[in-house]
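Support request, please re-run this one:
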Amino acid sequence: MIVRQFLTRLALAITAALALLGLAALGYLLPSHQTPVLVLVALAAIWAIGLTDPALIALATISLIFVPARLGAAGVDLTVSDLALVVGLIPLLVSAPRPFSAPMRTMLWLSVGYQVAIAFTVILHPTRSGIVEWFHEWALVSGALLIGWTIGRADRARAGAVVLSVTGLALALLVIAQGLRQLIAGNLAPVYLSWPVEFHKNFAGSLLCAVALVGYAHPHWSGLSRRFGLFVFWVCTTGIAFTQSRQALIGLAVGVTILVLRADHTVLRRRSQLIFLAVIPVLAAVSVLVRDQLRSGNEFNSANQRLDWFADSFDVWQTDYLFGAGLRWWYEGIFEVEFQPPNAELEVLTSAGLVGLVGFVVMCLGGVRVLAAVPPTVGSLGLAVIVARLVQGQLDIFWVAGQSSLPYAIAGICLGVAAREAEQTRRERELVA
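Re-run finished. Output below.
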């Protein structure tokens, strides 16, 4: 006890001394380096808030994950989504609620296993973009899980559901508004949102898919009413239709199927027929569109272009079967073709070889198994958004800011809620006993 008190007081004294030195240094640098000082002050404020109220930082991070605007920082191309994820994550490494539940620990260890698997290619190909990507992929999975866990475990899940719903509705309404303007002008092309920032159709579609699943499920912990949840679902689905993002539509269909099959009979199954009547024509339309593109003579349409990229991906992989050509090899100019493989497994296979692919498959399938074991009333939403994202990853780039981090953040919220409810149940049993 005496030793612990001494160490606590020593830590406080060191912290106070460092704070005083930091303030003195900032005061000295302020006249000549105003912008860096203001950035440091802002980061210090975020750190302080993150230590005192980590869930507040996690909620702010969730909303900023939706922003794809790109920033240049120290020669590294970052999106607002990535920057928010990293800045919000740093204080949570210290202040996130602990101990982690067994499912949460398993998810984090699966992510660590994948990072170890792709570390070999980083060592063999130590490029700056590859090293940055190694940390980036860890943040997209483990970082997003930790942010979601903090929200769920700290009893802020309802606030998290509201933030997700409102942000998703805002994005969907902007997409719909631009889509209607295009229709009035006779333009039937997919909507690439241009205001307030530019959104690729697949980026917007994937985010709207995750929010639509939140609205459709509206689990008890979300505080969303059935009526509002369905409103969110249909508005976001309409937004996806305007983007014409095929992978988002397919992912949504798969996610809804999981929610229906795992739901209790009084909550979701009674409206499953209506949903499936809407889903089946959509899947049929997507299938016909892809078939027509493959049969057309246009070798540059999205379907035929993907087939060419798939073939080129195997050529790149053959340069190193075990460890791949390096993370983000398409930025290095080492091959005649420069493209990011539009398939999760091929992206990992070309980048990190068979070793990385094994780690990726174990992480994905292991995560699905963990979420499937969580009680359905809590875990079904997390399972649905992760599986939907994995399905989307078969048709497009997987490691993308926002598109991959948002589903893992939602899964983290589910795990946090499950741990909180399990603890409450245990306490109630102890009181009864």
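The CA atoms of residues 378 and 387 lie 16 Å apart. Residues 344-373 form the longest helix (30 residues).
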